[in-house]
Amino acid sequence: MPLLVVGSVALDSVETPSERRDDVLGGSAVFFSYSASFFSRVRLVGAVGDDWPSEHTRFLDARGIDVTGLQVIPGGKTFRWRGKYQPNMNDRETLEVHINVLGTFDPVLSDEHRTSKFLFLANGSPTVQHKVLDQLPGAVLTVADTMDLWINIQRQELDRLLRRIDGLVLNDSEARLLTGDENLVRAGQAVRRMGPKFVIIKKGEHGAMFFSEHETYVMPAFPTPDVIDPTGAGDSFAGGMMGYLAEQGNFEPKTLKEAMAYGIVTASFTVEDFSLDRLQRLTRHDLDRRMGEYRRMMSF
Amino acid sequence: MPLLVVGSVALDSVETPSERRDDVLGGSAVFFSYSASFFSRVRLVGAVGDDWPSEHTRFLDARGIDVTGLQVIPGGKTFRWRGKYQPNMNDRETLEVHINVLGTFDPVLSDEHRTSKFLFLANGSPTVQHKVLDQLPGAVLTVADTMDLWINIQRQELDRLLRRIDGLVLNDSEARLLTGDENLVRAGQAVRRMGPKFVIIKKGEHGAMFFSEHETYVMPAFPTPDVIDPTGAGDSFAGGMMGYLAEQGNFEPKTLKEAMAYGIVTASFTVEDFSLDRLQRLTRHDLDRRMGEYRRMMSF
Fold first, then answer.
1. Do B218 and A216 touch (CB under 8 A)?
2. Does the predicted TM-score (pTM) go above 0.90?
3. Which of A38, A43, B137, B220 is 20 to 30 A from A265, comparing alpha carbons?
């Protein structure tokens, strides 16, 4: 089933303890789209400036991602992020953020895009997330990401969003901030009571937790020794997960759990190189093979 | 099969964000023994001073733990630890340590104890751990714990120990310290190459990782919302694991994985109250029921 994502499209600059890359292809909607494209058709909606290298658009298009929703804003500049990872590769410091065209981004979807049944609202302001939701009254599964900034400055809009969406994906520190509870099990359950049918807490190198009315479970990250650049891992997780759900066309508990696993496995590849470099060399077969290893790892 | 543990027997004082307890029963060998006693006969070897409340000995004895190896040192004082937990309940600060009788502890095992087939060397100096190993030439499975102190001040003795034992259990920061590698997958594999047949890295609320020549896997912690006091969780994990191995009488890969799971489940109860309070109210049936939940959580 068609899967639509709205989020940031970015040029990232990344410093790790051993390497540095400048102005590489990034952004939540980009990591999400590419990861989901292993499983289903994806429609990417976002905005860039006229500094955007058109080769990136061609690259995503060649991958089969629908880029007709990627607006190029004349005179605008693309969103840029610069970050530096600590030696543990799990903690990072944001050195620079230039919001640029994202500051006034107001997504207006095409008639075709409005028919999408699966929707992922990647990290963005709750105001924009509401506007997108308004345009997809027929969506069967709507999942959103959020971040500390919106929890701090748009809490009311975010609370209203939580009552409109089916699922929320957020990281551990955001779950603690949103609920004031340090225990992630209690925090996850508390976020779920704020509205969404299910909540997923991402824990970076420690995996992810799932909460619905009847289920609470934790799935560890796939243990890869080759962590080169964790940027985009969370969006790649969401892309693998939503892509699999869209492929299966349902979100039964069993499918959701498999989707979580596919998200974890997809993200475990993403971190093995900068930007989309590892995903570009990846096939569905590679994903399924590691999924088999992950399944074996979990069974006893 | 008989399981012997050598380690600390202590009086702990614990501060959590909401409560405080002074001079409660603790110590690595105590948490280990009680946890292992759900699965097999346990022989506890340790030392206390004459300030030791004899009711604690009677309590362990009544549980069926062999306490004949618990020496009371006349004129000596029991090992004491005082610690304070951060609001996240995973990080803690040691406020006071009084080594007391442990400083000169020189375990001499009885003839019966020397026949033990399963041995756990709870945290202690590598020198003492070597002395115990010397007394059990017929042990079939020897597993040790260690800590940052010994890595820093007795590295040579520790390196020699690693070549004598079958398994090592240590926590994530200790694995990083021992190897200089921040990536836990690489660190675990590197520790294994130092000698032990298998290595287990404990990650607190994030579970544990297992490394052998042919296997690397991660198992998440059981997600409990009721974390009251994490003291002893690591030793309780080791106790549940070694107790199950001793019960099964083998350490095949499949048994080791089940043992890891039992260790995780046992520790998930330990943290639900202070000292041994939760374990005292626990039955093997409770353990098996949560083990069933854990198994379901992991299968997809």
1. no
2. yes
3. A43
